[in-house]
């Protein structure tokens, strides 16, 4: 079992004739050296392991940072696409409203023109009807007039004369 700092601190050497027992001190120092060499080696191994883990951690941190940036870019792109789609939708709606207004205005204009044409045709029909009535009435007046009878008699007399002179 490796020595602890407390073991080293509390170690007491027995006194020999000229002080501490030299073999006991040397054995202890050999044990301390061996334990420290092990600790130094273990420390070096652990430092290398820590270094490798820090490198991997840095690599994963870079990946995480890259992913976070990618997510942000994707979110910004999605927001831009959404905004552009909204703008385009508004433009389409405005264009549709303009077209609808234009179609309505054209329809109203055509409707007014047709209404004016109908009124004009009604007036012309009324004028035609009045003229036709007047023509028929004038013709009836002519038929009712005594002039027809005289003309008819004159023609009959003329036919009789022609017939008698031709015999």
Automatic annotation (TrEMBL):
Q: Which residues form a coiled coil?
A: 29-56
Instruction: State if Cell cycle is listed as a keyword.
Output: yes
Compartment(s) of residence: Cytoplasm
Q: Which GO terms describe its cellular component?
A: cytoplasm
**Which UniProt keywords are present, listed alphabetically?**
Cell cycle, Cell division, Coiled coil, Cytoplasm
A Gene Ontology biological process in which this protein takes part is:
cell division
- InterPro entries for the chain: DivIVA_domain, DivIVA_fam
Q: What is its main location?
A: cytoplasm
The answer to whether UniProt assigns keyword Cell division to this entry is yes
Provide the family line: Belongs to the DivIVA family.
Q: What is this protein called?
A: Septum formation initiator
Species source reads Pullulanibacillus camelliae
């Amino acid at each position: 079992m490796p020595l602890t700092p407390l073991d080293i601190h509390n170690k007491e050497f027995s006194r020999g004739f000229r002080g501490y027992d030299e073999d006991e001190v040397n054995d202890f120092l050999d044990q301390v050296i061996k334990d420290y060499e092990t600790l130094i080696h273990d420390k070096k191994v652990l430092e290398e392991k820590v270094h490798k883990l820090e490198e991997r951690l840095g690599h994963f941190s870079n990946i995480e940072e890259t992913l976070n940036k990618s997510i942000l870019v994707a979110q910004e792109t999605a927001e831009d696409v959404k905004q552009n789609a909204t703008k385009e939708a508004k433009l389409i709606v405005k264009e549709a409203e303009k077209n609808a207004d234009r179609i309505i205005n054209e329809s109203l204009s055509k409707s007014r023109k047709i209404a004016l044409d109908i009124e004009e045709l009604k007036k012309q029909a009324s004028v035609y009807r009045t003229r036709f009535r007047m023509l028929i009435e004038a013709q009836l007046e002519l038929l009712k007039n005594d002039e027809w009878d005289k003309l008819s008699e004159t023609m009959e007399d003329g036919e009789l004369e022609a017939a008698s002179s031709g015999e």
